[in-house]
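the two lines:
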Amino acid sequence: MAEPVVVVIEDEPQIRRFLRAALTGQGYRLFEAGTGEDGLIEAASRQPDLVILDLGLPDMDGLAVIKRLREWSAVPVIVLSARGQERDKVAALDGGADDYVGKPFAVGELLARMRVALRHRAQLGGESVESTFTVGDLHVDLGRRRVLLGGAEVHLSPIEYRLLATLVRYAGRVVTHRQLLREVWGPNAEAQSHYLRVYMTHLRRKLEPDPARPRYLLTEPGVGYRLLAE
Amino acid sequence: MSTRPDPDALLARVQEEEARQRRGKLKVFFGATAGVGKTYAMLRAAHEQRANGVDVVAGFVQTHGRAETDALVQGLEILPPRLVEYRGATLRELDLDAALTRRPTLILVDELAHTNAPGSRHAKRWQDVVELLDAGINVDTTVNVQHVDSLNDVVAKITGIVVRETVPDSVLERADEVELIDLPPDDLLQRLKEGKVYVPDQAQEAIRNFFRKGNLIALRELALRSTAQRVDEQMRVYRREHAIEEIWPTAERLLVCVGPSPYSARVIRAAKRLAERLDAEWIVAYVETPASLRSPVEARDRVVQNLRLAEQLGGTTVTLTGQTMSEAILAYAHDRNVTKILVGKPSRPLWKRILVGSIVDALVEGSGDIDVFVVSSEHEAAPPAPVRRRRPEPDWRGYVEASVVVTVATVVAWAMFPVFELANLIMTYLLGVVLVATRHGQGPSLFASILSVAAFDFFFVPPMFTFAVSDSQYLVTFLVMLVVALVISGLTIRLRTQAEAAREREQRTAALYAMSRELASTRGVEPLLTTAVRHIAEVFRGEIVVLLPDPGGRLTLRGGSSSGALAVESAELAVARWVFDHGQPAGLGTATLPGASALYLPLGASRGPVGVLGIRPADPHALDAPEQLHQLETFANQTALAIERAHLADEAHSAEVRVETERLRSSLLSSVSHDLRTPLATITGAVSTILEQGPRLDERTRQELLESARDEAERLNRLVQNLLDMTRLESGAVQLRTEWHSVEEVVGAALNRFGTRFAGRRVTTRIPPDLPLVAMDDVLIEQVLVNLLDNVLKYTPPGSPIDIMATASDQAVTVEIADRGPGLPPGTEAKVFEKFYRVRPADGRGAGLGLAICQAIVRAHGGRIWAQNLPEGGVAFLFTLPITGAPPAVVTPDG
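prediction for all of em together
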């Protein structure tokens, strides 16, 4: 596989500098842009495999960049944003971003997110969609609708299963509350976020050894849920 | 006797001096009559001033077409007159606003006594001049002796012509310089012959009568004398200023009795002159007696005019109440140490004086060591007819009721007639008259009395059913019956009026008391205004507005009675503005801007005016009486003081807040600067070491340095995050986004944030599976848990266990985080939640913000947070989140 191409849209030169050091060392080809406009031009001309986008840009709103990018490209976008901006994160995710990393972040975290995003892009690219998913003791077989924990079958209600299956499809990525509610309960349930709390609790009781310290079904407060992928 | 000036007097002099310097200087060119050359002299002086470089403007100069005078005007800058259309004619007036805007050093304003055209700001030109002086502009003006208020009646006596246009003595006394323009009578008559004296065409005859030699000599003498008197006064001031001691009579105090009599004005002027000569304070008193309460409206109008005159001449006025005039006057005089009493010569006819006694006799009898002066009242010009006249509405209902009562009395008497003597039937009628008198005024009672006599005659006195009388002795019966009826009704009415007057006064006093009591217990300007407006509107029956200056100094409507019809138009607002700037009442019923639809009073408090109160009484004459106006002023003062108190309280509060903010800011700065620098120093040190000695360091040292740089960066991040959170929470920028959440999930998320930092510790979570969902902002509650857990990591030894528990009651869910560390020093359990409080300030492991943030968040949720040391060691932090109902059921069937 050729070196994945990454476009970084970030106005802080210091952050661009350490991303360049960290990512080129990991075998990525990097193209940088300091403004939203330049970033869109780079994204169009370089045909990147991934875009890293800072939400706070000098010339335009990061959300607007996502919106314009999504008009012609399905390239995965990872958003960089400060903690305490949960609303912006949710807006970016619902607006088409694939994941986010909160500033300040460790490079390891960013690389993990990037790997997940690239894997999903590869799956969407027509390569065989994996029908099974395994993390730790948890094994989900989407084809047969079976869930195993430590080799033993776990019985889930239909909704619990749909919830788990949705998280498996996006494994490793954060899924917003709205997205989950829409996919599991349908578009009319988008405001009923307490459904999620109830069923997530049920799922954790059945799948987690200590539901108060979950290993697989992670909560991102104010944003959504994430199923551990690796 | 010391020659040092009395300090109080010195202070008064200094203050006077200061006020005088701020004020413009007034120079008066004073003459005996028109034609002596006052205007000419004034213009000559103006030219001299101009030659000296003074900025002179001719504000208003009446040359009457005299060539020499005209020529003098030509060389000066002339302020264009204000043209006023009045009854088809165009009147020229001084343009006061233009003069104030132009602001020359010196302005010439001719004819100080002139009456302004209706619709001008002030009724009189001298008021314009006072405003110019107050604005710091020097004024030169001209006055004739006959226009001086206190000399007015003397002049009228000399010349036989009453001059209506007068200037209050107080204005002339303010003059810094008076220049007497003197011309011998013969010369004046010569000038008159030559046509050099202006004489209006329509009054040729009267004026020629005025300019008789005898008159001129007398007027000249008067002018010279009053100027000399002024020089005298200046001499005395000089002596006082230079502490020239002299034996002064003890302070004289004059008391002047006035009534509705037109001659009272003369007494007042005499008193003014006497007081001036004695250098005494003078008080003008009007006594309200039961009899005066019954006097006609015109008489009461005259009293008001007399009191106003007294105030204009510089006297103090007071209204007393008492059974008789002499009693009230004497009581007051003794009370106030009055040395002299002035009364007018009694106007009662001789027979009445013999019968009832005269006031003078009563005063002299009871005066003791007080001198009583009697001022003659002869040859006084008839007072001008009162301009306003009010006719009370005829009391038709009273007359109808009187007829009904007499009819009923007749029916009753008819029933009694066969059994009782005629004399007893009269009693029935008298009863009826008393009944009418208690309910209605004089007219109906009189009517009832006469009707009773007639009915008695017609129905009962033989021959019956005629007005004829067979026995002439019945005529005496009728007369006595009529007199008795009239006396009884008179007494009854007087009682009723007195009771009513007393009740009204009592009501007002009670109302004032009620208002001040309520104001004292009211906080905040808006509620204060509402209270004050309600009370004042109740007592004075009218529409009220209260205008207060906004931060930009513009008067804005802040309160008013509900009807709100007294819309504050720009014209009314201008009046209010004037009142606010000058601290004097104006508008309806006053001499200043009387064209306004309402009366405006300054709300004067101890530190200056705080606003303006406007009142449009339902009855436009309701506030004419000085005591009414004083009462209203008392209400206004109470309101003003209350507003000022509220302002002061606000200021004190904001000052307190400022001090507190300042204290917090400085403690924040000292705390934060230390906490920010420590990690930065570590990072800089570690990184620069690697940069400079990179190859020479062994791998382990380099790794250690990098790890400490990363750890310190993380610490810095947490600190900055805390600061930001605290700032946002305090500024109110954080809005709770509550949703139904599971405590277990939020605890899980918080623990997850720490990654591996809890490695090696036993973390026990005990959260019951049936714990209900709680409405909360998950991001903020997660922050609470993170801060609490972070503290455990920071302050307990590595490897010590942590317990996280949650329990539910009916009202709240309680979350507890307990450690096995050293615990809190006893007594600091509450303090740890204060901002910037640190148990051990020296260890520098935190800014003292984490728990304060927790407290702010929990409180925003309606919960409570506290700490308690545990008996088995360690400390537990607990917080509650209230349960506010149950989440909506999950309706989707899961099957």
